[in-house]
Amino acid sequence: MIKDILQRVSADRIRHDLFYLCRDPLPFRKVNYTRPGQSMNSLAEADAFIRGQIEAAGYAVTTTTYRVQPFRCDRTKPLHHWYSTPAPSDPSFDATNLEATRRGCERPEEIIQLIAHKDSMSWIDSPGAHDNAVGTVANLELARVLATCDLRRSVRLLFCNEEHTPWTSRFAAEAAAARGDHIVAVLNVDSLDGKSEEDMAAGKMTHVVGYSTDEGRALAEFVAAGAARHKIGLDVRVIFKQHVNDDDGMFINAGFRTTVMNLGSWPYADSEYHLPGDVPERVNIANVVRSTQLLLAAILDIDANDTDNLWKRMS
Predict the structure, then answer these.
(1) What total of structural domains would you count in the chain?
(2) Does 220 map to a domain?
(3) Is the predicted pLDDT of residue 315 greater than 70, yes or no?
(4) Which domain holds residue 27?
(5) CATH code assigned at 257
(6) Nearby residues of 304 by Cβ (< 8 Å), 6 or more positions away
(7) In a domain, 249, yes or no
(8) pTM for the full model?
(9) How many C-beta atoms lie closer than 10 Å to residue 93's C-beta?
(10) What is the dihedral of CA 82, 40, 283, 165, to 10 degrees?
(11) pLDDT single digits (tens) 106-164
(12) Are strands 206-211 and 164-165 parallel, antiparallel or unpaired?
């Protein structure tokens, strides 16, 4: 039963991974910071940790390397938006996409795509706990739990980079389109639990599902309805995301229109967004656990249904 599977989501594992990636030992996850005494930059260290966790769950991991540049910092711009385009002469670095697939047993060619960007801000020293260590650790936990499930369809996980330029999710989306991949749903997981100070203080458990296409709206409403369907204690909202951007936008631009973004609030209300105060101590682990359960329920429900008819019913 799905109810029993949802209980496999572990708060202890999520907390451990979160603090590993943005407190100890890694204060940041970016190409332009290397910890004293280390030979790899902190993003490469994060990659090694993520890869080790996925492989320990039984997956084979594919790595694809791209050249990226850190953003420049322009403090004359509005708060939260200090990133600035690097000059062509600024240094570039290798950055890696990590991909892993839980292959389905009946319809393996049909893919449910999960995305999380794993890097923190390249233009400022921020732990990036809400943006986006939480999405990274949620997808790591989904990988572990899904490894114990019998699935009809395949689930593919992408851990990419969005706080450097170019965004490496674009390359994964374009490669999927070039292969003619049959992706039935795309779930971008970014900034779960990120919300206002008032909602944090009140202990509100929030989740927002954002869509930018008609096809995405059907998926968003289906994901959101899972909270009531499976009695997951979350205040879930569905919103129209006007701008086709972020990692979900890269997949929409590549032609995969049944795509949504999952986050904690909209408009995004975290006061420490893109700032040094985005620390793991501010993350409500219980909220991240419930959001992870909602995503897990969505994956299992999508897998159990005829998606063509499912999206028509939701439209």
Answers:
(1) 1
(2) yes
(3) no
(4) 2-66+97-314
(5) 3.40.630.10
(6) 152
(7) yes
(8) 0.98
(9) 17
(10) 30
(11) 999 999 999 999 999 999 999 999 999 999 999 999 999 999 999 999 999 999 999 99
(12) unpaired
